[in-house]
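The freezer alarm interrupted the setup, so I double-checked each line after restarting. Inputs confirmed:
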Amino acid sequence: MSSGAAGTRPVDRPAVSSISDAAIHPGWVRITHWINVIAMFVMITSGWRIYNASPLFGFTFPPAITIGDGIDGLPGALLWHFAAMWLLVVNGITYVTLGLLGGRFRRKLLPIRPDDVIRDLRAALTGRLSHDDLSVYNTVQRLLYAGVIAAGVVIVLSGVSIWKPVQFQEITAIFGGYDAARFVHFFAMASIAGFLLIHVILAILVPKSLRAMILGR
Ligand code: HEM
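Predicted 3D structure, all chains:
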């Protein structure tokens, strides 16, 4: 049992450092992040199969990289899409609520100044961007994370507009109607897929960041 004396704390290592060591990514960030990975994977791959049934552009996605079963894969893909939708929405609301109320978004994602974005982008492209302190996001990361969170909100709202265009007609109207909401939904998916490509490459290039997102430190 501790004596309770102030002298029991090592003088060269203030108590707060052990807290910050463990808190690069607190448990709720890691849990919601990895649940989101599963939900996004199912949403995107089943969404591609649903798109194939009624393409917006002159191409379809290879069935081998989509999920879904049944005639043309559509019924199965819809079931997967709506099942993962609940996971994505409940998990997303949890992450965004805790991020806003607990001040994480303000601390980690702000400020985003255009000058800093240009400076950090230049440094990143010339291999001079430091990853020494994983607890601080550079401005390019901040922009990408804030952007993908915003894209997450848009993809859910445009999805709701397509799913229940009568019940949620006010939301559908914000996107300019059912047909426009389909395009918004598609482009939100494309931005998230584009983000993911860069994000996963960076996570592989800086493996200690991946370790921190799994173990917290
Ligand atoms: C296999 C896929 C993924 C891997 C390997 C991965 C990996 C990581 C890693 C390592 C970090 C920490 C970055 C750092 O400390 O510098 C991170 C943070 C983050 N990732 Fe991912 N990620 C994946 C998928 C996703 C997806 C699908 C999304 C959203 C669409 C996403 C959104 C984010 C966000 C917003 C953060 C910042 C979280 C915060 O600090 O609150 N990631 N990811």
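Quick read of the result. Confidence is low (pLDDT under 50) at residues 1-20.
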